[in-house]
Amino acid sequence: MRGERGFSLVETMVVIGVIAVLVALAYGVYNSATARAQDRAVMLNLRNGLTSARVLSTEDATYTTLSPAVLAEAEPSLDWVAGTSPSTNPTEISVVAFAPTPGGPIVGARLAAMSDAGDCYYISDDIGVAQTTYGIRVSTADGSCQADDTSNVDWNGWPGAS
Fold it and tell me: In 58-98, where does DSSP find H-type helix?
């Protein structure tokens, strides 16, 4: 009588195949969760940045004093650059103040930041009409994530944000 020792080659290959499928599924879920977390970090930084800008504008109800230097004092955890300079990472915020109507008061502020996933997120505030809008430019491989460039921005809100 011959005793069995271990598993056959076929049984071993089946187990390895099942493990490979499970690893592939887990990898896809991990990548998706990582990208969502990277995008959420940018959204949070932009909201914090806009809160700082709003605090600075409460005295005269305009964004006339808004600049990277002023914002750096108010919110030192973020790196601020002028609206003509691109954001290259989630903590670097490109900011510009603007007049929503030509010749009107400077009551608009727009902030932009690049997520590690490669998308450029925007938040724009107009205190003249009390309206905040959210936008995204997907896959900006050329690095053009700056507050004064809103070409190809989808202003229908941030995906998955509430």
Answer: 68-74
Strand partners, 120: 114, 137
The residues that bridge with 124 in the sheet, in sequence order, are 110, 133
pLDDT 10s digits, 82-100: 999 999 999 999 999 998 8
| pLDDT tens profile 117-137 | 889 999 999 988 888 999 999
Segment holding 14, helix H or strand E: helix 9-57
Token pair 């030192």 is found at: 76
The DSSP code sequence of 97-155 is EE-SSTTS---EEEEEEE-TTS-EEEEEEETTTTEEEEEEE---TT----TT--TT-B-
pTM: 0.80
Q: Please provide the DSSP assignment of 39-60 as one string.
A: HHHHHHHHHHHHHHHHHHHTTT
Q: Tokens 């709003």 — which residue?
A: 54
